[in-house]
Amino acid sequence: MPENNQPEPNQPTGQPLSGAPSPEELEAAQAASEFDALTVAQAEVATLQAKNTELADSYLRAKAEAENARRRADEEISKARKFALESFAESLLPVTDSLEAGLAIKDASPQQIREGAEATLKQLKSALERNRVLEINPAAGARFDPHQHQAISVVPAAQEANTVVSVLQKGYLIADRVLRPALVTVAAPR
User: Fold this and answer.
1) Pick from 126, 123, 121, 131: which is nearest to 179 by CA?
2) 185 vs 137, 142, 150, 180, 189, CA distance in Å?
3) Is 187 helix (H, G, I), strand (E, B) or coil?
4) Residue 167: which residues within 8 A CB-CB, separation 6 or more?
5) CB proximity list for 133: less than 8 A, separation 6 or greater
6) Which end of the chain is more exposed for a tag (fewer CB within 10 A), N or C?
7) 74 pLDDT above the threshold of 90
8) Backbone angles phi, psi at 57, to 5 degrees
9) pLDDT digit string, tens, across residues 45-66
10) What is the Rg, in whole angstroms, of the alpha carbon atoms belonging to the chain?
11) Summary mean pLDDT of the chain
């Protein structure tokens, strides 16, 4: 081993190397770094809290708006149900007036009664059509449709099987939905 009073390169000397920070400086730098990180974290927390408050406010507003829309829709449905028949009832009022006027005539002849009944029936059919209540009255020989017709009986006939022979009672549709099927007799298979 050499004896030149020089420490070996990797041996601690107890003295800081020139240019290296002292432990106090290292502690101060670490504290400053932690302070900067804390300041950044606090700023992020404040930003997130503001964003949270903004989102909570937006949520409450959206919730209130949805509740108001639901309430308005419920009111509209209630009104629609309450007044759904108003238009139909208005169109039937002239029919009622005609019937009352016909009954008010004490000495009406059978011909007058018939004419009044025909006029009243015409008014009634017109009122039904205006409210989309349409007749189901298949012609003889028309194809039997189980969605619109109800077969009362199957009869032998000189026409194609499963076709309408006669209509016993008209049916009615309301807005493409069967209100009452037409009662019909149907041709039996040969």
Assistant:
1) 131
2) 12, 11, 8, 16, 13
3) strand
4) 137, 138, 182, 183, 184
5) 172, 173, 174, 179
6) N
7) yes
8) -65, -45
9) 999 999 999 999 999 999 999 9
10) 47
11) 88
Q: How far apart are CA 155 and CA 161, in angstroms?
A: 10
Beta strands in 83-144 (DSSP E): 133-136
What is the Cα–Cα distance from 149 to 163, expressed in whole angstroms?
Answer: 11
Instruction: Count other C-beta atoms under 10 Å from residue 38's C-beta.
Output: 10
Amino acid present at 178? V
The DSSP letter of residue 5 is: S
Specify the DSSP element, H or E, that contains 169: strand 164-169
Q: How many residues are present in the chain?
A: 190
Coil/strand/helix, residue 47: helix
Q: What are phi and psi of 66, to 5 degrees?
A: -65, -40
Token pair of 3 as six digits = 């004896």
